[in-house]
């Protein structure tokens, strides 16, 4: 028992723990919709797209989440513009914007601002240095996740299940979808300090993917996603602390392993 | 041209141009068969292989090859469950593998070479690297040529595939294998994260510029080569990193080509997510 | 009172060119209208413009109140973790505030609708595990829960086995008797014969009228062209391609 509690006696670990718990709630809830509405690539791409914003934030004196959100907004606007005349498939446009963001970010980090070791933190997260602002944002996003699932869950479900019938069912399909995308962007920005720009899927996508394997109902998917995100998040934190790694990669490996086990269990059943 | 004066630069230039010529046409097929997400993910997923090779002092090409094979196998395994579409399978597998690679690279005892692995280092290319890139590139181009009909049928007329003796599943798999080869060839020049630029950007621009396949293929190769040259020039004269410069130029060309477009008239009033959602 | 009134209606997918022109018809309460036409002829287009998904390019189109839409069951996501009852309950979404749980009353009503289509026993089963005919019936139960005066059904008989088809027809007859309006797109000319009116579409409206008037060989030929199969003097069937 001591071995479990001891690592969390340090203040930085307590903050990290709080952040992960809040992000796990958001990740497990939003993740259900990401899995069902096929938004995994979108989520990963938005996360990656924040990288140039994060690089610029410090030198420009802007709060990191604001810069990240700005970058995400630019990315989404650029994507919408590219998709406008229908000549480019959505995955091609997403890939294009994503790699452009990475290239811009790496040039800014390498040659303009010379961010050095900062880059690792921006890309993969950190255990230390989580600010109060980061925690508040995580809390807000967790609250939004709970609220939106309660109010918009039905709309998101109906729209995803049968887009053609959504209108006739009287659900505000388009509004609901725009809100979902906006919520996902916020969740991604909230997760950045902890897991980094390249690994937002570890809390937002992977636990729910595993839950998808095991759950037979929406309730199960939502609850399972949160439970798995909590377990993987906390477990990953402990491993990261022990092995002196950033949290992102640790949670990612753990998440993948759990998914593998679940998939195996399902096949053997 | 100052660019051509140093042997280092000449080699780097040759490498990125070669990569541009190979990735261009390959990218056209990737776009037509809608494998962009798979492409990006395979590139990410081979990171552990790269890191292990770098740590062991082996040529990166070997690490890349091993990494990609492992990644492809795992993705295929994960996607077998009906509830998990290919998109989720990729997301999980790639996340885990990429995380593993990062963990290996960032563990305190290992030498930090992560940024070159991620963003490329064309100036660090040896003659051997250049030969390998050229050789692999040639293989890819030959395979694309031989597989042209199968690719055409799979992309544009899958319904008739069987009657024409083509298997869309096998053609797709074959394309992904070629993709793997191209990524392995490009890893030295562009790194793990940026190789997608040469695969997607010139092809995207080519698809926009012309409706005819043959034109698209040739144009993509040209644009790829141009991106390589212009990127290296930008890198040299502006004194910025080479790999990202090539990637950035490629993307800029594609985006510039896409901007002047007439707005397609609104068809069925579809929600934003149906337009964005990826995977099948 | 007309549930639907269309006059010289034209509509299309890209806002410029009409995929469907010159449509003039009405749907009254208690009427079942068959919509016949080849694939790509405009049947689904018509349903979409009635739902408000497509813009009206010319003419007028008035739909009194909300229509319930029964899509082809194959278009729904079969892998969603929803049971048959969950799907039927979606019919109550429009009249319940988003933050309110669907209470016992609605659940009872939904179960009653499932019972009406003969699937009460399968309420808890996952939608995707049901057969084509059963899924179609669940979607009809959902439309019933919406309690809409007008139902639009998009090829409800495609991919449905004979037994389910007979049950479906019986349900549609009941709905007609209740005074609801039905607009049913179908490939089956025999169905068209038993209902009140027939609307023949092939990019334009070819005919609209009682089956006796509208199902003449000439009109059918103009509608279907080569897809028609005749046996001697009698038109027997339409060669229907299956959608992917």
Question: What are its keywords?
Answer:
heterotrimer; A: 269 residues; mainly alpha; ABC transporter involved in vitamin B12 uptake, BtuC; 14 helices; globular; C: 244 residues; alpha/beta; Rossmann fold; six-stranded mixed sheet; three-stranded antiparallel sheet
Rg result of chain B? 19 Å
The CATH architecture of the largest domain in chain C can be named as 3-Layer(aba) Sandwich
Could you tell me the mean pLDDT of chain C?
85
SSE sequence of chain B, one letter per element: HHHHHHHHHHHH
Strand order, biggest sheet of chain C?
5-6-7-3-8-9
CATH superfamily of the largest domain in chain C: P-loop containing nucleotide triphosphate hydrolases
Helix content of chain C: 25-40%
SSE series of chain C: EEEHEEHHHEHEHEEHHEE
Count up the domains of chain C: 2
CATH topology of chain B: ABC transporter involved in vitamin B12 uptake, BtuC
CATH architecture heading of chain B: Orthogonal Bundle
Topology:
The complex is a heterotrimer of chains A (269), B (280) and C (244).
Chain A: H1 2-5, H2 11-36, H3 40-49, H4 51-60, H5 64-83, H6 90-112, H7 118-124, H8 132-161, H9 163-169, H10 173-195, H11 201-204, H12 206-214, H13 218-243, H14 247-268
Chain B: H1 7-32, H2 36-45, H3 47-56, H4 60-78, H5 86-106, H6 114-119, H7 127-146, H8 148-156, H9 168-209, H10 213-238, H11 242-258, H12 272-276
Helix pairs in contact in B: 1-7, 1-9, 1-10, 2-5, 2-9, 3-4, 3-5, 4-5, 4-9, 7-9, 8-9, 9-10, 9-11, 10-11
Chain C: E1 2-11, E2 20-28, E3 32-36, H1 43-51, E4 56-63, E5 67-70, H2 84-89, H3 104-116, H4 132-146, E6 150-154, H5 162-177, E7 181-185, H6 189-194, E8 197-201, E9 205-209, H7 211-214, H8 217-224, E10 228-231, E11 234-238
Parallel strand pairs in C: 3-7, 3-8, 5-6, 6-7
Antiparallel strand pairs in C: 1-2, 1-4, 8-9, 10-11
Helix pairs in contact in C: 3-4
